[in-house]
Amino acid sequence: MSKAISNNASVSFGADFKEITKMRLTVSVVFSSAAGYFLGAPVVDFVTLLLLAIGGYLMVGASNAFNQIAEKNLDAKMNRTKNRPIPAGRMSVTSAAAIAISFTILGLYVLYYINPITAVFGAVSIFLYTCVYTPLKTKTPLSVFVGAFPGAIPFMMGWVAATNQFSIEPGTLFMIQFFWQFPHFWALGWWLYDDYKRGGFFMLPTGKRDRGTAIQIILYTIWTILVSIIPVFQVTGRLYLTPVSGVLIFLLGLGMLYYAIKLYKKRDEKTAKQLMFASVSYITLLQIIYVLDKFLRVWI
Question: Which GO terms describe its biological process (predicted)?
Fold first, then answer.
């Protein structure tokens, strides 16, 4: 009996550990960093790539843990988050803080080992997310703008980890993911509007699921598409995209724009959900196309 209880406790802690660090989200961020690394690396060093993945996971996991500590009372009010470890009472604030602090220290150390610039961007990311974005979420819709900065750092940080310098190339990667976050998070905010309202979060630019918000989603979707194909024109240093890949990304962008326009017309939760998933597909496939484009050019 005691062994069964111990096993159940281990499973429960493992599940809560994944939840407090938001493992699925964190893995997607690590994927973004890896894509940036592949794009920037003249020669792939798999040790550095592994360190980037570990350091990135630790930093993002720390940010998520700090976020859940700060929002524990608000999370308890929302259907989407009320079963998280802290509001559900399965994990204490002290335990969550221990995870967050240890992840921060270890993450900074690992990223610094790669190079100091990468560590600086990692530190900036966690500071903006936990100390600026998180408290602003209940005060102003501008929180999405602030949150877009740490959210855009991983793609860029991968290039910096590979080259030990910041230049126009990682700046372009930053801008792609920066603009992408607006239609993504506004679609999410529209879809889960009632739940966010219960928690007191301001996610939509006008504060409402209205025409103004829908128009801004369309505009930022267009900006995302345009920034994504700039490397085709050979104005972004070593970051170059062939016309064929540029066309593929443009078509993917039109798919996301289709749902943005559809949301403007229908203004319903179903379409907002479709747009949110379309945006996830867009940024994932974009990063894959960018990396494949680079290596296919080298091999061919």
Answer: heme A biosynthetic process; heme O biosynthetic process
Q: Which of 166, 201, 226 corresponds to the end of one domain?
A: 166
Number of domains comprising the chain: 2
Domain span including residue 132: 14-166
CA distance 93 to 90: 10
DSSP 3-state helix, strand, coil percentages of the chain (rounded to 5)?
A: 80, 0, 20
Q: What is the pLDDT of residues 262-293, one digit of tens each?
A: 999 999 999 999 999 999 999 999 999 999 99
Residue 9: pLDDT over 70: no
State whether 217 and 256 are in the same domain. yes
6 in a domain, yes or no? no
SS3 at position 127: helix
User: Which residue has 């994944």 as its token pair?
Assistant: 18
The helix/strand/coil state of 227 is: helix
Q: Is residue 4 part of a domain?
A: no
Residue 260 has pLDDT above 60, yes or no: yes
Q: What is the dihedral of CA 182, 185, 189, 190, to 10 degrees?
A: 60
Residue 253: Cβ-neighbour burial (10 angstroms; 0-12, 13-18, 19+): buried
* Residue 7 located in a structural domain: no
Claim to verify: residue 133 and residue 172 sit in the same structural domain: no
Burial 68-102 (b: 16+ CB within 10 A, else e): bbebbebbbebeebeebbbbeebbeeebbeebbee
* Whether residues 135 and 197 fall in one domain: no
Residues 266 and 162 in one domain: no
User: Are 40 and 122 within one domain?
Assistant: yes
pLDDT tens digits, one per residue of 188-222: 999 999 999 988 888 899 999 999 999 999 999 99
Q: What pTM did the predictor assign?
A: 0.91
For residues 211 and 274, give the distance between their C-alpha atoms in angstroms, rounded to a whole number. Answer: 18
Tens of pLDDT along 70-95? 999 999 999 888 999 999 999 999 99
